[in-house]
């Protein structure tokens, strides 16, 4: 979807605010003509140039639209003359000033109401755009986050959408207001003096060219600036997460140099962008001023030479012309700001339009249980043809059995787990659940069957209770506590400052590695899935923590179908079936005893670890 079409699509639920704003802005524009128009008789009264009108004969409109303004003008002077004859010039002047004041008051009330409604329109669209992006984050495949930097994604959902709000949505007030103002003012100018108005029009083609030139360069510089801001966020994200490594290796100078380089590049593009943006306003103002001086000279010549004996009309014309300059300037600034915002909108659209790769078919098959087996059938996986990860792998995991994957790092074990969880889709072959290809299953139903505990415990900055509850949001407090007991976590949780309601900080950093892992296991236990995936769940733990966690895992795996990935082979000797992998291939498989008797790669791995 094109970026601007996306904005229009998101804007549909908020259109009532836009139409309301346009209505009040039309009234504002009409009152602008009226408020300036009332100045003409005031000036005429002040300068004493009101022509003596025959009050015995009221003006009549001929019915032609072209004669309407002349009729209104004649009727106004007719009314003024009657009242001056009856009440005197001072009272008429006071009444005209009061009418003009009311017109200006109503005009500014309508202007406020128009802007007020546009604020609702702008903020509503910004909220929906940010919500759409967050929803997309939740749907994006794991592969996206391995390819993209998290800091850049943070920049897009915060700074880029902020730039869209300030650049595009923030300029809507002027984009809506200014055309009405310009058109209504030009109409008034033509009615006052067609000849003088022709002089004023020479400025607009030049202003249009300047706006176009500034806008194109702004978009390019804005894109570069936002990209550098994304780099800066990524660097800050890495710094905050790697403080221990930075300190122990005295790497602060290296990172400071990177940060300074990034901020300098951002500064260069931001300054370049601001210079171009600021150029639009003074150039348009200068051209308007020159045009006004030309008009003043032309009209002044006529007044001095005596060919124009109505200086009040000229002063009213100058007043209306000044009303054109301001909206023209604001329109040029708005167009420039929109061009800058478009660069950010394109960066947001890149994420919103990203191909999910892992998608449901049109009519997915629902699934609620595992009845027979999981089958990996001749599967292959690669990111690119030259980067082969798995080739022709076939594994069967019967219901209620435990299958373990072992092998050196890079052999493809974790990839198999990720394919089973459908974080990625296989490049070749198929993964079957009870004979159904997982690509054809309803994704939310299928993942409801799965539980996963990984080497790195993923916990949220929340209480222990809420982290466990994520496994099953409908669970009772008793069920949460029971899950923690199964995971050997209840004892240490009750010793925390606030027990289950203790906040564990970012990534659970207030807990030890073993404690974090047991909370993760409790979460998986609470979900109570029929299929469990364990990806090196104990490899990062010390001996004592490993004993607690291993005991918890064994309790959890009772009567479940399990796929285990392990470096420590002592933890998988009880597995029903062991698959030995090397460089994306299966080289051995069988029970622990069978593989030891075969005296192959598995035995060598076991002996190496026993020696260690």
User: What strand line-up does the widest sheet have?
Assistant: 6-7-8-3-9-10
**CATH topology annotation of the largest domain:** ABC transporter transmembrane region fold
The outline comes out as: elongated
Averaging pLDDT over every residue, what do you get? 79
Any idea what the CATH superfamily of the largest domain is called?
A: ABC transporter type 1, transmembrane domain
**CATH first level of the largest domain: which class?**
Mainly Alpha
Residue runs with pLDDT of under 50 for 5 or more positions: none
Using only C-alpha atoms, the radius of gyration works out to 37 Å
Helix content: 55-70%
What's the total number of strands? 10
How does the helix and strand content classify structurally? alpha/beta
Can you tell me the number of structural domains?
3
Strand content: 5-15%
Q: Please work out how many helical segments DSSP would assign.
A: 22
Intertermini distance? 58 Å
The biggest beta sheet, please? 6 strands, mixed
**CATH architecture title of the largest domain:** Up-down Bundle
């Amino acid at each position: 979807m094109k970026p601007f079409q996306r904005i229009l699509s998101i804007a549909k639920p908020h259109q009532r605010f836009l139409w309301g704003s346009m209505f009040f802005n039309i009234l504002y524009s009409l009152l602008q003509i009226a408020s300036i128009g009332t100045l003409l008789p005031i000036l005429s009264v002040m300068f004493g140039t009101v022509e003596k009108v025959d009050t015995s004969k009221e003006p009549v409109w001929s019915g032609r639209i072209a004669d309407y303004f002349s009729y209104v003008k004649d009727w106004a002077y007719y009314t003024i003359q009657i009242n001056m004859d009856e009440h005197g010039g001072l009272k008429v002047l006071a009444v005209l000033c009061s009418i003009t004041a009311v017109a200006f008051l109503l005009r500014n009330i309508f202007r406020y109401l128009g802007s007020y409604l546009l604020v609702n329109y702008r903020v509503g669209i910004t909220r929906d755009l940010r919500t759409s992006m967050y929803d997309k984050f939740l749907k994006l495949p794991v592969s996206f986050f391995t390819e993209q930097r998290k800091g850049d994604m943070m920049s897009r959902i915060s700074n880029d959408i902020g730039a869209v709000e300030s650049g595009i949505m923030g300029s809507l007030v002027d984009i809506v207001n200014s055309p009405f103002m310009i058109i209504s003012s030009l109409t008034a100018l033509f009615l006052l003096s067609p000849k003088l108005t022709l002089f004023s029009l020479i400025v607009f083609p030049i202003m249009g060219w300047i706006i176009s030139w500034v806008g194109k360069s702004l978009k390019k510089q804005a894109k570069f600036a936002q990209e550098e801001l994304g780099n800066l966020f990524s660097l800050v994200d890495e710094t905050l997460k790697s403080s221990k490594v930075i300190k122990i290796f005295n790497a602060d100078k290296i990172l400071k140099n990177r940060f300074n380089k990034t901020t300098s590049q951002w500064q260069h593009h931001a300054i370049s962008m601001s210079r171009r943006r600021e150029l639009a306003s003074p150039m348009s103002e200068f051209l308007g001023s020159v045009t006004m001086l030309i008009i003043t000279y032309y009209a002044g010549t006529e007044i001095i030479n005596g060919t124009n004996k109505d200086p009040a009309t000229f002063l009213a014309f100058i007043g209306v012309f000044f009303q054109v300059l301001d909206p023209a300037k604001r329109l040029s600034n708005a167009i420039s700001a929109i061009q800058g915002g478009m660069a950010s909108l394109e960066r947001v659209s890149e994420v919103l339009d990203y191909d999910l790769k892992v998608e449901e078919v049109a009519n997915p098959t629902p699934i609620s249980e595992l009845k027979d087996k999981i089958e990996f059938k001749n599967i292959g996986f690669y990111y690119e043809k030259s980067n082969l990860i798995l080739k022709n792998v076939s594994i069967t995991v019967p219901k209620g059995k435990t299958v373990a994957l072992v092998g050196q790092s890079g052999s493809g074990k974790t990839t198999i787990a990720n394919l089973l969880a459908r974080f990625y889709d296989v490049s070749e072959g198929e993964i079957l659940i009870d004979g159904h290809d997982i690509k054809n299953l309803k994704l939310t139903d299928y993942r409801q069957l799965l539980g996963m505990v990984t080497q790195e415990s993923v916990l949220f900055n929340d209480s222990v209770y809420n982290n466990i509850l994520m496994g099953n949001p409908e669970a009772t407090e008793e069920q949460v506590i029971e899950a923690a007991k199964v995971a050997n976590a209840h004892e240490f949780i009750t010793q925390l400052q606030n027990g289950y309601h203790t906040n564990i900080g970012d990534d659970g950093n207030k807990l030890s590695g073993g404690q974090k892992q047991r909370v993760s296991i409790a979460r998986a236990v609470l979900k109570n899935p029929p299929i469990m995936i364990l990806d090196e769940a104990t490899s990062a733990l010390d001996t004592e923590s490993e004993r607690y966690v291993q005991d918890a895992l064994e309790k959890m795996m009772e009567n479940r179908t399990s796929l285990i990935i392990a470096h420590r082979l002592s933890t998988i000797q009880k597995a029903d079936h062991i698959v030995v992998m090397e460089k994306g291939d299966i080289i051995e498989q069988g029970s622990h005893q069978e593989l030891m008797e075969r005296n192959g790669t598995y035995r060598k791995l076991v002996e190496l670890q026993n020696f260690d």
